Amino acid sequence: MENSTSSKTEFSGKAYHHNPQERNTPLMSDVEYIAERLDAQMNWYDRKSSENKTKYKLIKRTELIIAALIPVLITSGAFKVVQENDLGVLLQIIAALAGVVLVIMNSLLELDEHYKLWKEYRVTCEMMRHERYMYMTCSEPYDESDAYPRLVEKIEAISNSETQRWKQIDKKSDKQAKNPVLEETSNEENKRSSI
Asked: Mind listing the UniProt keywords for this protein, alphabetically (predicted)?
């Protein structure tokens, strides 16, 4: 009887090379990789960077305009003509509402992190673009016979570091969401044990 645990399973077909040294040609050419993976990733990061830059600048400009209008509204309410027509109260209400809108916009800007994302996506896009140009011009380290695998390793490392960063952010968010519950539970237990 043949020992099933010691026998190797043989695979056949294109994608089942279990020993990379035996692979004669890559499953994807460098032209395909650049078009389907690298350029697609660069375009995504470029687009997202531009979107976050636009949102950030729009919100900051709106904040600036509102912040500049609040003192004007309050000062205008002090004029005698305005006070006689009961517009002073209306201007104060508008100024107060503008202040509320300003706080909300600032909080949303902080929450959505448009500035941070704009910068991070731009840096990632430019790192990928740099590697692409180095590869396309056969510049070091892409001037050797293993240039294509090096390019893939470098681009995937850049992409993976971005993914790992997002995983860390998710973990921190989860911990922050769980901590208030854990703190309340431990505080209640401490109160009970002291009684």
From this structure: Membrane, Transmembrane, Transmembrane helix
6 lies in a domain? no
Determine the residue type at 116: K
Q: How many domains does the chain have?
A: 1
- Tokens 């050419």 — which residue? 29
- Measured between alpha carbons, how far is 167 from 156 in angstroms, rounded to an integer? 16
Note down the domain range covering 99.
Answer: 28-163
pLDDT tier, 11 (very low <50, low <70, confident <90, very high otherwise): very low
Helix axes 114-136, 39-76, angle to 10 degrees: 150
> CA angle 84-87-91, nearest 5°?
140
The dihedral through the CA atoms of 91, 92, 93, 99 has a sign that is: positive
Instruction: Round to whole Å and give the CA distance between 73 and 111.
Output: 29
Residue 43 pLDDT > 50: yes
Per the domain annotation, does 172 fall within a domain? no
Structural domain includes residue 21: no
Instruction: Write down how long the chain is.
Output: 195
In a domain, 19, yes or no: no
Residue 12 has pLDDT above 90, yes or no: no
Q: What is residue 103's three-state secondary structure?
A: helix
